[in-house]
Design brief:
single chain; about 110 residues; alpha/beta; Rossmann fold; 4 helices; 4 strands; UCP029416_PTP; Phosphotyrosine protein phosphatase I domain-containing protein
Amino acid sequence: MTDIKLLFVCSRNKWRSLTAEKIFSGLAACQVRSAGTEENARVKVTAGHIGWADIIFVMEKKHQAKLQQRYREELQDKRVIRLDIPDEYEYMDEELIDLLISRVSEHININI
């Protein structure tokens, strides 16, 4: 069985998506990456990220809209899931970790 490839996207790839990458990268049968939609993102999302991913988790509606605007073609057969996690948490914040685990587990099987 092939690993499922998860991409987490937020604005600057410093807090939310980077936290998600850190906590989910230990999952068996998963490969995990993260990126941001802003010009000043730590790692800026590219068409390559979209093509690589099996499931794309975005934190907010604006991230979903930016991806759709920039990568409409690449997103054709992709599953994009909005987690609705606002930008009010810092990297590895306990509440953020709990939210990520709770919301992501609604869509994929995770054992953390």
